[in-house]
Amino acid sequence: MLEVRDLSKSFGALAVTQRVSLRVAPGERRVLLGPNGAGKTTLFNLLVGELAPDSGLILVDGRDVTALSVDARARLGLARSYQKNNLFAGLTVHENLALSAACAQGKATALLADSHRDRGVVATVEEVAERVGLSELLDASVDTIPYGARRRLEVGLALASKPRILLMDEPTSGIGPGGINAFHAFLHGLPAELTILIVEHDMDLAFGIADRVTVLNHGEVVFDGPPQEARDSALIREIYLGSWGAEGGGHA
Amino acid sequence: MFHQTPLKTGAVLLLATAAVVYAFTTGFFGLELLTEVAILAIVAIALDLVAGYGGMVSLCHGALYGVGAYAFASATVLLGWGGGAGMAMAVAGGGAFAWLIGAVSARTHGIFFIMATLAFGQMAYAYFFDSPLFGGSDGMPGIARLDLSGAGLDLNDSRGYALFCTVLALLAYALAATLLRSGFGRTLVGIRANEPRMRALGLPVWRHKAAAFGTSGALAGLAGALAAQHTMYVSPGLLHWTVSGELLIMVILGGLGTLVGAVLGAGVLVFVKHEVARFTDHWHMVVGLVLIATVLSGGRGIFGQIEFLWGRRGARRPEPAATEGSPDHA
Ligand SMILES: Nc1ncnc2c1ncn2[C@@H]1O[C@H](COP(=O)(O)OP(=O)(O)OP(=O)(O)O)[C@@H](O)[C@H]1O
Ligand SMILES: [Mg+2]
Questions:
Q1: Which residue has a Cα nearest atom 1 of ligand 1?
Q2: Out of B182, B201, B323, whose CB is closest to A99?
Q3: Which structural domain range is residue B221 located in?
Q4: Which domains does chain A have, with CATH numbers?
């Protein structure tokens, strides 16, 4: 489904991604772990094409997409949510989701019909809003809704494009324990065939949902295996959990 | 997002009625002013489409307008085509040139985009200024107006021509409004709000921006054809960047991103210019002061301010802010 071969990227002397190789199966839920600055977000940027790698390959369904633009990759079914909210400011929740859904459903360039009232688009908007708990806020401006709602809309935008591969970058950051439980339920409600890559700092959530765990440290894959093994690995405890106490407060 | 609200519809109907009443009560001089307003309103609508809704602030709309005027003049005077074909040529010429400018400039943003459009505009200005084929700095005289006598309309009559331009301005508004409430327009607003995210959602942003700019240029070209027929003469001055600057002033004064404001801005600027010029040569200063007042008072422009106040009036009705304190779903 999604495959990465020997991907490398440096910012000057700083090697942020070092010979990373991954293979994510269709419908797999893969959790990406790693301390701050490990290169998780950078890997996402490389995968969706917002950054160009120095070397290596990215394949979607066996097809080399390394040279494809961001939008062309998105049209192949690759969607991502951002660590820092990246919404359409000044617009309503409905308009935000509709922009995404219209784009995926080929309504973004219709010259006469209002894409935001299109039946298919509206159905997707309502379905996604229901999933991420924004049904009550559809007509509210994203500038006025609470932080937690904006965070859920961030994921909703990616979901409304009906992707086949969904990358989520710390979707639960800053939303509190209640939000994390709700997010867990949300993940379980997603279609089984959706392939998911998620950067998650909450260990219980991460190990609870992962089919497989990949751990990055200094841009390198230092672990790739089932969650039980990750939990027991001394290496991970050392490089990852060592820094956990220091940042636990920030992500709780 | 653009919505053809009852307030907008009311304002458009009011302006159209005022124009028609004015056309039948004023004399020759007033009809000249009305014609000028209607023509500039079309370019201002074209500019608001890309600047107000697409976030592409352009300093080349004067040049697009001028290219339309020259296209009409060349087609009718040099090639001997009819007025209808000349108008089509102006629309195509303005559209094609604008598409090219948009395609090249769409990857730049902010001040760089403005500078790129300025450079293209001044290039076109310099070209017509130096070109012997198009009369160089003297321009081209002897342009005839469209012949609509078959439909019982005499466009050589100044009232007939003023009403003709008013109707086209109304159609330009309807076209822009239709486009803005379509999927194309919604997406354009999405690009203005967050271009990288629109791209991440799968939109070929570059193509969309170039298409929007081209459409805007086609409208500006149409207005250019009307201007050429109005004065029956074209000169390179039409393409000068100061014309673009004045168009931008109209749109900002009337209310950037309100569409109705573009029409209002064109009207206010033309009438202020002529009224104030009767008393003083320093009408530019008066316009400047009005513009400064507009920017300092919130920057919404005349119609933007009207919509703002209208919206607040609506919000004060007994529906409390439904978004406040809504529970995070848990
Ligand atoms: N555009 C850039 N230019 C230079 N350095 C960068 C750039 N983007 C990221 N970096 C650096 O690359 C390293 C990896 O950053 P990245 O954001 O990928 O880490 P991360 O694993 O997502 O961390 P976090 O958990 O804090 O989100 C960091 O040291 C960061 O400062
Ligand atoms: Mg990160």
A1: A11
A2: B201
A3: 6-240
A4: 1-77+166-178+201-208+217-252 (3.40.50.300), 87-163 (no CATH)
